[in-house]
Amino acid sequence: MTLDTSRPLASEHRLRRLEDPVGDFPFYNDAPTTISARQWLFVLGAVAAGFLVLVLPIPWPGGVLGALIPAVLFPVLPMVALAHVAPKHWTVIFGKVGVRELRLMLGFALLNIVVSMSIGAIVSVLTEVTPNGAAQLLGSMDAAGRMAFFAKTVPQLFGEELLTLLPFLALMQALSVHFGAGRKGAIISAWLISSLLFGLIHLPTYDWNLIQCIVVIGSARLVLTLPWILTKNIWVSTGAHIVNDWLLFGVGLLFAGLMGKA
Q1: Radius of gyration of the chain from Cα atoms?
Q2: Domain regions of the chain by residue span
Q3: What is the three-class DSSP state of 103?
Q4: Residue spans of alpha helices (H) in 27-173
Q5: If DSSP codes are grouped into helix, strand and coil, which group holds residue 87?
Q6: How far apart are the first and last CA of the chain?
Q7: Residue range 14-38, pLDDT digits in tens
């Protein structure tokens, strides 16, 4: 059954407390516009291209500008592709940012830190884990380098949200239209698959540690996708992701500084 986003969804179609009582995901049910399978492949190709621009050893200019170029292109390429296939409706993935949204960003960031650190502690007991190289690199930078690093993370983490949530929407459509899944089943399946993919793309970052990437990073992604499922507003999940990473990096720097003075 096709659901119309212009009308309130019946409660039986929603994931209860995981979703706000109003609003729906765009595109999967032809609202506010239709995106064909071929168009979704084009968008997902742009997502992949943006990721490759970020990770491949391309000889960018040196300094802050060289670091910002791939970080900015990472989200820009998929956004341009989405705007091309949905020229009047590409902004539907964005919503307002008010006090509630800011609280959700902070709340989900803190929740994710608790969940990921708890799962990470369990995994580290059972198997070897690889530290985040970016955190180690940050500790060796001067003040200007650290400011540039934190600035670069803003577009880069927005790109990571697009890398997760655009495939989420494509999967919802594929599961609903081609596999006959109901709305709840499509949401849960898209949530799990997109989180798994997010974990797998971190394999090079964590020395190809499959268990760490699937269990720890994948679990963190499950939590960070929750604000998107709740609000359908990519600003909220992006904000939670930024707060999460900034808190972790900031606490790491503070701890390293204290240890250095000891």
Answers
A1: 19
A2: 11-261
A3: helix
A4: 37-55, 63-85, 99-126, 133-139, 143-173
A5: coil
A6: 64
A7: 898 899 998 999 999 999 999 999 9
